[in-house]
From TrEMBL:
Probably acts as a transcriptional activator. Binds to the GCC-box pathogenesis-related promoter element. May be involved in the regulation of gene expression by stress factors and by components of stress signal transduction pathways. InterPro entries: AP2/ERF_dom, AP2/ERF_dom_sf, DNA-bd_dom_sf. It holds the Pfam family AP2. One of its GO terms (biological process) is ethylene-activated signaling pathway. It comes from Quillaja saponaria (Soap bark tree). This is Ethylene-responsive transcription factor.
Amino acid sequence: MEERDCCSSNSSSPSTTTTGAEKRKHQHRRQHEQTTEKPYRGIRMRKWGKWVAEIREPNKRSRIWLGSYTTPIAAARAYDTAVFYLRGPSARLNFPDLIFQEEFDAFNNIHGTGDMSAATIRKKATEVGARVDALQAQTHALSHNNSTRTFDKPDLNEYPKPETSDDDEN
């Protein structure tokens, strides 16, 4: 019987064979990941354009669902809130300047008494994400309304009125 080296690359071994389809699939996935860069940590975009945020619980395989948002900024802010409550002030945040003193105080109060539950973290993160999403939508609507000119819609049931100019009146 022939002994095999554990590190040899024998193509007859079923555990080391890779089909051409699998190679193409992995190559396609790598190319897709390179072309669709994630703008922030902890978020991803759904096929239909919504941005979602989730975070893995420390020392567990489970994840905390943080919600679905229309903007990547809202999803990133929800992620920041959750990661801050899970990991504290040393957490790597997308927007470190936007964590306010009240979050620091709440973090210190909670971690002085015990850990926060996943449901509480989800609730706080979704509140922040929804607030940011609403502000982003409102800002977008205001900028869109200011940039587009509004025209008076003519009443199609009226006969056109003759236009008079300032020169005709004198």
